[in-house]
Design brief:
By secondary structure, the protein is an all-alpha fold.
Length: 1097
């Protein structure tokens, strides 16, 4: 479990139901939420009955009123009860009402309600119902401290309830693993759980000393999991862990606890106990061989019995028929159909044989014991096979050990085949393991320069030819290709190329197989071309690398992909009759590998990190547009392809076609949990790229990011707490830690922060209404720099053919660096700064001591702004995780935090430091300098954009424009806030109204505001120009020119560029191109219409 500080998010509280003993008037008022009546009636009932339950009702009612002093009634009452250790709430229903009244208050559950629940259980030790309710409430709120105290009490007071013992062991273990447990207590509690667990499990058959394996195990899956957890702890010596796991692994498997066996196996691997891994996995395989051989013999015997029985029945039937047949003798002429009859009898005999075998399999399997089932299931699990390979490869004589292992697995597969247990899936998994064994054994035996083949090459080729149809074929082969040396790689590519050519050119060849092999071949070449770490030459073609990449290979891959793609698209039989019936799609693979190679040729992702305006600033736009039009053309013709769709979506976002990307995103129909892992692929930075998505009818409850917020709120505040309680009630403890981990992962997910911040930015500039303070957002209000936030995005939805050290596809097609803890925290800190600057006291707030309140406000502002500055400064040291515009924006945020702190010290509190005045001047100059640089970066067109491409640069720079707009807003907000503070100060002290320092400060703030206004004017002008441009004509010709005309001067690759353009013209005909160009222009028009409605300042 995470040792990190938890991000506490309070679960939703259930609406209480009053006791039946309450009169109908009080119950009716409570149900109707008529709180004044509830309070009045509760007071009356308490006065007459002195029952403290009515005090709890009164507090609950007051906590729901609009009056701020009443709203804190629950918090105040609970804090008072906790502070007085002699006061115990003995009514569990009353305690439930106190808990309800605290909902929304920023209280630690374990320090308040949890304390009261534990006191109640200790005060009423024999009350099972109250104890159980308090236990479940603590678990619902992740208060494992008091859950442990309650289970300890219940075990002591209900000795007949055996479940209480295991529950106490579990809660003790669980509490010791959570961050809430003091560091000094963790080891002690873990030891306590282990000692008590050992004693309990001894009685269940898991003895540490007794070797009598005939003793039956009495364990559930959850209890077995808990045993493993307790053994795994640091309090158990390494040798004891290994001994315990090895001793009981097969016994647990024999009891049907397959998952427990796998957990033990994984634990032994983590401990690198390879001898134990080899021993227990080897025994599983041997046992499975014995079972399958025995069953094979039984199947054969049963098959013979079935056939003999059928023959006997047939003879008996024929005899009866002959005795009853009195017809004329057969005419010799009627024997002309005898041969056909013989053939039919032969087929019937074969069918009968097959049917008899199936019946024999079924009969034998029906008698299989649970233990035999477990051994067979595990023996066919690739995890067991790979564990055996891992352990064998760690031995000194690993080559001989691997050979023996291969023989053992061969024997297993043959036995399984004889017993009818082996399936095609098992065979493909085995073939992969077999290939791995071979590569490990032959790792040191490289072929000579004159060799024409090698064992590794032949077996890898055989595997690909056998499984070329599998969508996972390339991924399965990837790690083996990476292990080949240069000579083997040359042999392999040549042999695979010949096989593909043979299928493609042969009139009777398999066209689907041929294209599939070509696609795999090109994917492998791309893999090799990007596996260039510590090398100056390409591993395949030996060409000199250009910035660690092989331009020659990428060019060759694009040309090969286009040639074969065009051939496949011309084959109607392949497209309409063959592809719909297959799992794989070689045409899609060709389009993707060709397009990604075009992106490599375009130098996408080679811009110098955070110093650029757009990731396409230094890119070759012609190749980028070619990649997009190619992918779009194929997706239109064959829309069922998720990796291609996601790749195209990301490219459309890069060039500003947001509505087109949005329509592709909608086709995934992604909801709920998958939003956390896939949402950033579309929504990251979306508010800066397309603020038009937020409005005009957008509201807090209806905006593009609201599904994220709703999901996180429901999952973290209802679903996971409820599931945890249900799992505990049902004894399914093994599921609770994974739920806990999942919930903690969501709480510290970068996607969560992204959703909250993107929503706030979009609504702030589009919806035109004030937002609640981020300090009141329950999802992020407790996050701080002690929380290391994680990027939970699943990038596997994007095709990735590159080497492990190369730039992954998500970076290649990203708007900038991926989600990170640094960026997430910077965005939250800036939102908190905006909250500080945007705060306005309620108009009806009329304090009697205005000067005192002003002084307190001033201290708070100085302290808060300085804390924000220090935190931002520390994070900005890691600015490589930011885009250029983001680096500018967060730098301005940090400078403004410093400016606000210094400004208040000098002009408002009149407690300046010796450097306050100089620091203010410096901060303002720095803010204006960064703003100017950010504005210039947006407006300057890179030199590689020829004159015809100037318009295109505007569409790829939307993120830069949106982030500049954020900077403008922040500067204007700061100037307005500080001016207002000066006005309040002058109103309270007339002598300062005409002070030179004050006048100078007003002038500085005006200069800041004027600079922001000037930058805003540049954005407005740019939006107006781009909107007019995109609404003009000639776009189809303009896009065709950008995509297919080479404007590069002195291009050394001119011939290749022209060949690619010519082939792509064939792949995308005029009709398809015009349709695509129309969608691009429509998308740009929609983008600019959205920007036209945005409030820039």
């Amino acid at each position: 479990m995470h040792e990190m500080e938890p991000n506490h998010i309070t679960p939703w509280g259930a609406w209480p139901v009053l006791k039946r003993s309450c009169d109908s008037a009080l119950q009716g008022a409570f149900e109707e939420r008529n709180w004044p009546i509830v309070i009045s009636l509760a007071k009356q009932r308490y006065k007459s009955t002195k029952d403290p339950y009515y005090l709890a009702i009164e507090v609950a009612g007051r906590s729901q009123c609009d009056n701020p002093s009443d709203q804190t009634a629950g918090r105040d009452a609970v804090l008072k009860l906790v502070a007085d250790s002699n006061t115990i709430v003995k009514d569990v229903d009353a305690l439930g009402l106190y808990e309800f009244s605290c909902y929304g208050a920023k209280l630690s559950y374990s320090e308040t309600i949890g304390v009261l629940r534990s006191r109640l259980v200790k005060a009423k030790p024999k009350d099972w119902s109250s104890s159980s309710q308090c236990l479940m409430a603590c678990i619902y709120n992740s208060d494992w401290l008091h859950a442990q105290e309650i289970t300890a009490s219940m075990e002591k007071n209900f000795p007949a309830e055996k479940r209480c013992r295991m529950q106490n062991i579990f809660t003790t273990h669980m509490y010791s693993q959570t961050p809430a447990c003091p560091v000094g207590s963790r080891e002690l509690l873990a030891k306590l759980a282990k000692l008590r667990g050992d004693k309990e499990f001894e009685s269940r058959g898991l003895s540490k000393t007794c070797n009598d394996h005939s003793v039956p195990l009495s364990l559930t899956a959850s209890e077995a999991w808990l045993w493993i957890e307790l053994q795994w702890g640091p309090q158990t010596p390494l040798t004891d862990k290994i001994a315990a796991f090895q001793k009981h692994a097969l016994r647990l498997l024999g009891s049907g606890l397959n998952n427990t066996f796998i957990e033990i196996l994984l634990a032994l691997e983590r401990l690198k106990a390879w001898d134990s891994v080899s021993r227990i996995c080897g025994q599983v395989v041997e046992k499975a061989i014995d079972v399958s051989q025995r069953e094979a013999s039984l199947v054969e015997k049963k098959r013979v019995e079935i056939l003999q029985h059928r023959r006997t029945q047939k003879k008996f039937s024929e005899k009866n028929q002959e005795e009853g047949d009195v017809g004329p003798a057969q005419n010799p002429a009627d024997t002309s159909g005898q041969d056909l009859s013989d053939n039919k009898d032969s087929l019937d005999a074969k069918d009968s044989e097959g049917q008899a075998k199936l019946e024999a399999y079924k009969a034998v399997r029906s008698q299989r014991s649970d233990q035999d089932k477990a051994y067979l299931m595990l023996a066919m699990d690739p995890l067991v096979w790979n564990s055996l390979v891992n352990s064998a490869s760690e031995k000194e004589n690993y080559s001989q050990t691997l050979k023996q292992l291969r023989n053992s697995l061969d024997k297993l597969m043959k036995s399984l085949a004889r017993s009818g247990e082996a399936k095609d899936l098992d065979q493909s998994r085995y073939d992969r393991v077999h290939l791995r064994i071979l590569f490990l054994r032959d790792a040191q035996s490289a072929p000579g320069p004159e060799a024409t083949s090698s064992t590794r090459v032949e077996h890898l080729l055989e595997y690909i030819l056998k499984y070329h149809w599998s969508v996972a074929c390339f991924e399965d082969a990837r790690k083996f290709v990476e292990a080949l040396n240069h000579e083997e790689l040359q042999m392999f590519v040549q042999k695979l190329g010949r096989e593909a050519l043979k299928e493609g050119e042969n009139k009777d060849g398999d066209k689907y197989k041929g294209l599939t092999l070509v696609a795999i071949l090109l994917q492998i070449r791309f893999l090799v071309a990007t596996s260039t770490r510590d090398s100056t030459l390409c591993k395949y073609c030996r060409s000199e690398l250009d910035k660690s990449e092989c331009i020659s290979c990428f060019t060759s891959i694009v040309k090969g992909a286009l040639e074969n793609y065009n051939a496949g698209m011309r084959d109607d039989n392949l497209r309409y009759n063959i592809l719909p019936k297959t799992n794989g799609d070689p045409l899609s693979d060709l389009a993707m590998i060709g397009s990604i190679s075009l992106l490599k040729l375009a130098r996408v992702g080679h811009s110098p990190g955070y110093t650029t305006c757009s990731p396409l600033d230094l890119a070759d736009i012609q190749y980028i547009l070619q990649a997009i039009v190619w992918l779009d053309s194929y997706l239109t013709a064959w829309p069922k392809n998720n990796p291609l769709r996601m790749l195209l979506l990301k490219l459309y976002l890069l060039i500003g076609c947001v509505s087109q990307a949005k329509s592709l995103w909608a086709q995934f129909d992604i909801k709920n949990a998958i939003l956390d892992s896939l949402g950033p692929l579309f929504f990251d930075r979306i508010s800066t790229i397309a603020p038009g998505l937020f409005g005009p009818g957008t509201s807090i409850r209806r905006n593009p990011l609201r599904p994220f917020i709703d999901y996180y709120g429901k999952a973290l505040r209802s679903t996971i707490p409820k599931q945890t309680v249900e799992a505990f009630k049902g004894g399914n403890w093994h599921t609770i830690p994974s739920m806990y981990e999942f919930g903690e992962g969501l709480k510290k997910s970068c996607t969560l922060v992204m959703a909250v911040v993107e929503e706030r930015r979009g609504l702030r500039f589009k919806a035109g209404h004030p937002l609640p303070s981020i300090a009141d957002d329950p999802l992020v209000c407790n996050l701080n720099l002690n929380h290391e936030l994680k990027d939970m995005t699943d990038y596997s939805y994007l095709p990735n053919f590159g080497g492990k050290d190369s730039m992954p596809t998500e970076v290649l097609v990203g708007q900038g660096p991926m989600l990170s803890s640094t960026r997430a925290h910077l965005s939250l800190l800036t939102e908190r700064l905006i909250d500080l600057l945007d705060y306005a006291q309620p108009k009806d707030f009329k304090p009697s001591k205005q000067g005192h309140v002003l002084s307190l406000d001033c201290e708070y502002v100085i302290e808060t702004a300085e804390a924000l500055r220090l935190q931002m400064q520390g994070l900005l040291a890691k600015r490589e995780g930011l885009t250029g515009p983001e680096a500018h924006y967060y730098s301005i945020s940090s400078m403004i935090a410093k400016l606000v702190s210094d400004f208040f010290q000098l002009h408002v509190s009149h407690k300046p430091t010796s450097e306050s005045g100089t620091s203010i001047d410096s901060s303002i100059k720095e803010v204006l300098a960064v703003l100017k640089e950010q504005t210039t970066d947006l407006l300057v067109v890179p030199t590689n954009y020829h004159s015809e491409l100037r318009a295109f640069h505007g569409f790829v720079g939307m993120h830069a424009m949106g982030t500049l707009r954020e900077s403008i807003f922040l500067i204007k907000l700061t100037a307005g806030y500080l001016t207002s503070a000066l006005d309040k100060m002058k109103a309270s002290d007339k002598a300062l109204a005409n002070n030179n320092e004050t006048s100078r400060a007003v002038g500085q703030l005006k200069s800041m505001s004027a600079a922001a206004t000037a930058s805003a004017a540049e954005i407005k002008s740019r939006i107006k120009t781009m909107k007019q441009l995109v609404e003009g004509g000639g776009w189809i010709d303009r896009l065709r020119d950008w995509a297919f005309t080479n404007h590069t001067q002195h291009d050394p690759h001119r011939e290749d560029r022209e060949l690619i353009a010519e082939a792509l013209n064939v792949a995308v005909d005029d009709t398809a191109f015009e349709r695509w160009a129309g969608t691009v222009v429509d998308s740009w028009q929609e983008l600019m219409n959205g920007w036209s409605a945005v409030k820039i300042e």
